[in-house]
Amino acid sequence: MPLDKHELLRQLADRLQQSDRLAHRAEADAREAARNLATESEKKEDGRAALEFGSLATGQAARARRVQEELQALAKFGQGELPRFPRQGPVALGAIVDMSTEDEDGFAERTFFVLPVGAGTELTGPGGDGFLSVITPASPVGRALMGRKAGDVVEVTLAGEVREWTVLEVA
């Protein structure tokens, strides 16, 4: 059964919205903690803790802004018809790519969805069957895959280890 790319984009948008809610909640909690510490005591340690909570709140606000930017980019990308790819190829933004590798643990297959945002997010296939990993063209795997076709072998260095992957199919 072919994968519904719009459904996969909805899954990713849901995950990003959840991340946005968590970032806003963490920001509010950190700001509240900073206010409470600053008013409860004038000790130097409490003052430092208040500054740290303030910095944490600022970081969470920045995280929420990045997530909002990702949501906007995803919405723009998902408007209208998503690109269709012939089985043989070339990988580009919007492609679902099946790949295989062989290592000391044996033969392994992975499926990647190449999108402008959401790197590292795991999505589930129809009915919860199978997993897809979102990658972006800026990631090591994404850079190695762009423009490749079924049958091509790519080398990717992850955590200092070089791995060879074979492109099985592009959809």
Automatic annotation (TrEMBL):
Entry keywords, A to Z: Elongation factor, Protein biosynthesis
Lineage per the UniProt record: Bacteria, Pseudomonadati, Myxococcota, Myxococcia, Myxococcales
Keyword Membrane attached: no
GO molecular function terms attached to this record: DNA binding; RNA polymerase binding; translation elongation factor activity
InterPro entries in the cross-refs: GreA/GreB_C_sf, Tscrpt_elong_fac_GreA/B_C, Tscrpt_elong_fac_GreA/B_fam
Bilayer-spanning residue ranges: none
GO biological process, one term: regulation of DNA-templated transcription elongation
A Pfam short name: GreA_GreB
Protein name: GreA/GreB family elongation factor
Region Disordered, residue ranges: 21-47
Taxonomy, superkingdom: Bacteria
Domain Transcription elongation factor GreA/GreB C-terminal: 131-170
